[in-house]
């Protein structure tokens, strides 16, 4: 981080003020998403450096950004500029990666429910595919045909069943996870070995152990299990048939402070210590980090429309709720967010004479649970102030939830590293208009139901 003169928190404050000055939010645009370009670049460079430090020289490494963490074409392009590829899990995500100019050799397709058409397209384009289950392997058999090796690298996802983390919904390596071939189930391991023996074109093994909430040791244990399986398969077939291990993503993010912990470097070094053979040059590597590359570079800014009190409880009604912070609203204990208070000009709000006040920060959605924070100690908010939801760069404002037909907010990247103190903005996505909402909600079929009789 030493190459960036201004610390992330200072850049964030500059950006909040500048966003108001530039009119990116105001009475007509009461909520906006901001992305710190320097932060994203630093995270991507840090990831590459972390693995460069541990792999044998010349090892092919593809860092494929998990597109679902920020499904925004300019973000994918920025990451591609920084040397990253894309991990995609749907035709939409694949199209976004291609629109960003990411070439097929730098794209990996995972998803538990790929259709035949999706598989055929991926193979035709030369995109790496990780099959999820035996039935998908059967489909690949039919598509690959006999004799001709496929143009795309093909692999199999396994579930090492090492257990879950603190967030069940994001733990992919539990005994009963829906992902991959469950390796410890009776007969499964022998089946996997046979599947590779019978398919010389199957050259990769994939394991994504979990996401937020999984301890690093658990993730490393899962990668170790995948590595040991690859070794067993290669021994059985008598050659290095598995030439690449895809170790997934899942590095957790610290949502409690500006500290970046754990870092990619810590994880890479833990992997080196836990699975030394992984990095000795016999295996190419694919990683699929999402959240850890971008979460800390995102900020939602929302206007406080009203403040009120109910049953003695102060409530700030803002324009950021479940439509943006979906996980936080529906699972507040698993996904707490830091909230900051700014005045109407985007300057950090000072505490009043009485000190901070315990407040609820509510969103605009019409259900009682639409709160991004409850009983949070903040300077007393007033109508017209702004609130900031920190660390929201991944999985928040890019994955909109269309409740109440609330529009997707505009998203802008910012650069606050200039020596002149100026903050420059670039549009990532324009705010959605009401006309667009009406059009995508069936406007052209308005009479469709009435005419059915
Ligand atoms: C979601 C996902 C990732 C990214 O997970 P993060 O926690 O965002 O790093 C990587 N690989 C697969 C297969 C995934 O489903």
UniProtKB/TrEMBL annotation:
GO MF, one example: diaminopimelate decarboxylase activity
Family matches, as SUPFAM superfamilies: Alanine racemase C-terminal domain-like, PLP-binding barrel
Pfam family, one: Orn_Arg_deC_N
Enzyme Commission number: 4.1.1.20
Domain Orn/DAP/Arg decarboxylase 2 N-terminal: from-to ranges: 60-295
Cofactor(s) the protein requires to work: pyridoxal 5'-phosphate
Keywords (A to Z) from UniProt: Lyase, Pyridoxal phosphate
Top-level EC class: lyase
Record domain Orn/DAP/Arg decarboxylase 2 C-terminal: where: 296-393
UniProt cross-references to InterPro entries, sorted A to Z: Ala_racemase/Decarboxylase_C (IPR009006), De-COase2_C (IPR022643), De-COase2_CS (IPR022657), De-COase2_N (IPR022644), Orn/DAP/Arg_de-COase (IPR000183), PLP-binding_barrel (IPR029066)
Family of this protein: Belongs to the Orn/Lys/Arg decarboxylase class-II family.
Name of the protein described by the UniProt record: Diaminopimelate decarboxylase
Species this chain originates from: Streptomyces demainii
């Amino acid at each position: 981080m030493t190459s960036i003169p201004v610390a992330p928190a200072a850049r964030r404050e500059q950006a909040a003020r500048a966003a108001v000055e530039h009119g990116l939010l105001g009475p007509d645009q009461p909520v906006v998403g901001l992305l710190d370009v320097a932060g994203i670049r630093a995270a991507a460079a840090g990831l590459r450096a972390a693995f460069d430090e541990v792999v044998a020289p010349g090892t092919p490494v593809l860092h494929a950004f998990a597109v679902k963490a920020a499904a925004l074409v300019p973000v994918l392009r920025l990451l591609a500029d920084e040397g990253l590829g894309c991990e995609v899990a749907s035709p939409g995500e694949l199209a976004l990666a291609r629109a960003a100019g990411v070439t097929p050799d730098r794209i990996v397709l995972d998803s538990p429910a790929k259709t035949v058409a999706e598989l055929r397209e991926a193979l035709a384009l030369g995109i790496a595919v990780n099959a999820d289950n035996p039935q998908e392997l059967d489909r690949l058999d039919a598509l690959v045909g006999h004799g001709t090796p496929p143009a795309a690298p093909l692999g199999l996802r396994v579930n090492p069943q090492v257990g879950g983390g603190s967030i069940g919904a994001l733990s992919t390596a539990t005994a009963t996870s829906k992902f991959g071939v469950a390796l410890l189930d009776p007969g499964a391991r022998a089946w996997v070995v046979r599947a590779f023996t019978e398919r010389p074109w199957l050259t990769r093994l994939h394991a994504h152990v979990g996401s937020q909430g999984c301890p690093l040791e658990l993730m490393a244990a899962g990668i170790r299990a995948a590595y040991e399986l690859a070794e067993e398969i290669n021994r059985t077939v008598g050659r290095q048939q598995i030439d690449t291990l895809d170790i997934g993503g899942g590095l957790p993010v610290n949502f409690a402070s500006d500290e970046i912990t754990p870092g990619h470097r810590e994880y890479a070094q833990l992997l080196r210590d836990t699975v030394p053979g992984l990095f000795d040059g016999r295996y190419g590597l694919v990683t699929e980090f999402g959240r850890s590359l971008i979460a800390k570079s995102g900020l939602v800014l929302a206007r406080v429309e009203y403040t009120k009190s109910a049953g003695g409880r102060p409530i700030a009604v803002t324009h950021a709720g479940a439509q943006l912070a979906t996980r936080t609203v529906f699972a507040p204990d698993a996904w707490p967010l830091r909230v900051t208070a700014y005045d109407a000009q985007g300057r950090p709000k000072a505490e009043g004479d009485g000190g901070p006040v315990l407040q609820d920060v509510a969103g605009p959605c019409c259900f009682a649970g639409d709160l991004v924070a409850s009983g949070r100690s903040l300077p007393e908010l007033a109508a017209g102030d702004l609130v900031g939801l920190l660390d929201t760069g991944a999985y928040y404002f890019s994955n909109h939830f269309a409740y109440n037909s609330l529009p997707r907010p505009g998203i802008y990247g910012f650069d606050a590293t200039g020596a002149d103190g100026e903050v420059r903005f670039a549009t990532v996505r324009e705010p959605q208009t009401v006309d667009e909402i009406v059009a995508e909600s069936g406007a052209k079929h308005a009479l469709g139901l009435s005419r059915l009789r």
